[in-house]
Design brief:
Oligomer: single chain
CATH architecture of the largest domain: 3-Layer(aba) Sandwich
Shape: globular
Mean pLDDT: 94
CATH topology of the largest domain: Rossmann fold
Order of helices and strands: HHHEHEEHEHEHHHEHEEHEHH
Low-confidence stretches: none
Helix content: 40-55%
Length: about 350
C-alpha cells in the first residue's frame, strides 16, 4: 500500500493532516495576543513549568532550545505539588492543553496559595476557570488537537511568554525560519517513500533505545520515546550521553534476548564536542557487539536551534508511520483514558 492507503485504513481522525499542518500552529502561537503587563515589572530568580505529557514536553525542549540564553534556572515539574523553594520570586507557568489535568490543577491551586506569579497556558477547562477567578493571565491556545499533536502551539506559546517577560531576546527570526522549515518538511515527509516512512519500516516494531546528548537535544530523545509509546503503542527507552556511559552501557555486556527485537537510535549533531562524538561511536560499537543494529538521526539545518526542531518534527513522523505500518490507530490512547476514568471514580 502507499501512504494514502495506510492513512485511509488506519487513521480515522486524520492525524496525518494534523501533522502535516503543524507549522500553522507556530503561526497561531506567535501571532496570538495576551496581556502579561502585571508581571512585566517583576524580578524573577527562577522559572517553573508545570505540566504532564504533551503539555510538559515544551518545557523540556525549552531547556535545550535556550541552553545558551537563559540566565535564570528553568525547571519542569511533573507532579501534584510544587517544590518548597518555589515562592513569590518564581515565575510559575502551568501548562495543560485540555485545562483539566488534575496534577496541574493541584499545582495551580498551590501556586495561588503561595502568592506566586503565575501564567496559564491552556485551551480552557478548569485551569482557565481557576485562573480567571484568581486574576491570573491566561494564554489561550488553539483547541481541537490531541495534546501530543499540539507541540507547535504549546512550545511557541511558552517561548512567546518568556520573550514577552524579558527572559530572552526577540526570537521572531528563528521562529519564522522554523515555521518555514516545518512547512517544507511536512510536504517532504508526507510523500510516498519519504525518509521517515522508510525509517519506520526499518524499525518494524523493534523496541528502540534512543540515545541523545544531555542538555543539547535530550528532550528530542525523550519526546521520541513518548511518541513511540502513544502513537505506535510501543515500548521505547531513552537515555543521554555521557550519563549512560556510567551505568546503562553495562547492560549491553550480556545482552541476549531472542524473544524481542531491539534497535539503537542515536540522535547526533555536528556541533557535539569531539569527546561526545567519540562516546557515541564507542557506545554504538559495544552495542553492535551484542548484535544490536543501529540508526542515526541528524538534522541538516544551519543552527542548533533549527536542527533541534527539525529532528523533533522528523521523529514525530517516524512514530506516526510506525503506528499505521503496524495497522494501529495513531490517535487511540485507551489505557490513558481507562486510567483517568478510574481515578475519577
Amino acid at each position: 500500500m502507499n501512504i494514502s492507503e495506510y492513512v485511509s485504513a488506519y487513521d480515522p481522525e486524520n492525524q496525518f493532516q494534523v501533522l502535516k499542518d503543524t507549522y500553522k500552529q507556530i503561526e497561531f502561537a506567535w501571532k496570538n495576543e495576551f496581556n502579561l503587563d502585571k508581571l512585566k515589572d517583576k524580578k524573577f530568580n527562577s522559572i517553573m513549568i508545570s505540566g504532564l505529557g504533551g503539555s510538559a514536553i515544551a518545557g523540556d525542549l525549552m531547556l535545550n532550545f535556550l541552553k545558551d540564553e537563559l540566565k535564570v534556572p528553568l525547571l519542569v515539574n511533573r507532579n501534584y505539588s510544587l517544590p518548597l523553594f518555589v515562592n513569590e520570586s518564581t515565575l510559575v507557568v502551568v501548562s495543560s492543553y485540555s485545562g483539566n489535568t488534575e496534577e496541574t490543577i493541584s499545582v495551580l491551586e498551590q501556586a495561588i496559595k503561595r502568592n506566586c506569579s503565575v501564567v496559564s497556558i491552556t485551551t480552557g477547562g478548569k485551569i482557565e476557570e481557576i485562573s480567571l477567578k484568581a486574576g491570573i493571565p491566561v494564554v489561550k491556545t488553539l483547541p481541537g488537537f490531541q495534546p501530543r499533536y499540539a507541540l507547535g502551539v504549546s512550545f511557541f506559546s511558552l517561548l512567546k511568554v518568556l520573550q514577552t517577560l524579558g527572559f530572552i531576546e526577540d526570537q521572531t527570526p528563528v521562529v519564522t525560519e522554523i515555521m518555514e522549515n516545518w512547512k517544507t518538511q511536512g510536504v517532504e515527509l508526507s510523500a510516498d517513500d519519504n525518509p521517515a516512512f522508510k525509517m519506520a519500516e526499518e524499525i518494524d516494531c523493534s523496541i528502540p533505545f534512543i540515545y541523545s546528548y544531555a542538555d543539547f537535544n535530550s528532550a528530542a530523545g525523550y519526546r521520541f520515546k513518548c511518541q513511540f509509546n502513544e502513537n505506535a503503542k510501543l515500548h521505547a527507552f531513552s537515555n543521554v550521553i555521557p550519563e549512560l556511559n556510567h551505568n546503562e552501557i553495562i547492560g549491553w555486556e550480556l545482552f541476549d534476548d531472542e524473544d524481542h527485537e531491539y534497535i539503537l537510535i542515536n540522535i547526533v549533531d555536528k556541533d557535539y564536542p569531539e569527546q561526545i562524538k567519540k562516546r557515541f561511536q564507542i557506545t554504538t560499537e559495544l552495542c553492535e557487539d551484542s548484535n544490536i543494529s543501529f540508526i542515526e538521526i541528524e538534522g541538516s539545518l544551519s543552527s542548533a536551534k533549527l536542527r533541534l526542531m527539525e529532528v523533533v518534527y522528523f521523529c514525530d513522523w517516524v512514530t506516526y508511520y510506525s503506528a499505521i505500518l503496524d495497522e494501529l490507530d495513531p490517535t487511540e490512547i485507551d489505557n490513558i483514558n481507562i486510567l483517568k476514568k478510574r481515578l475519577a471514580e
